[in-house]
C-alpha cells in the first residue's frame, strides 16, 4: 500500500472521531427585507428590471446597480449587479466625462 492510501485512512478515522464530539454548524437565516440593517433608497429605474439604489448595509453606504426579478409577487434583487462603495462611486463619477467621450468616439 502506498503512503497516500494509508494517510487517507488515518484522516478518515480522525474525522470520524471529531464528528462524534462536535455538532454540525448551524446555518444562519437570511435577514428579511424589512430588517433595520438594510435601508434602500431607489434613485432611478434604468429599465424594467434594472435599478440604481443607495443603501445603508451593515453600517456602510453602497451604490447598488442591479437587476431584479419577480417571485411570488415580490420584487427581489438578482445576482447580476454591482455594489460600489462611496469611494468607488466617486472614482467612477470623476471619469464620467472620459466615458462620454469614449461613447462619442465609438458612435
TrEMBL record:
Keywords: DNA-binding, Nucleus, Transcription, Transcription regulation. Residues 1-40 are annotated as: Disordered. Its main location: nucleus. It is found in: Nucleus. GO terms for biological process: positive regulation of transcription initiation by RNA polymerase II. The keyword Nucleus applies. This is RNA polymerase II transcriptional coactivator KIWI. It comes from Raphanus sativus (Radish).
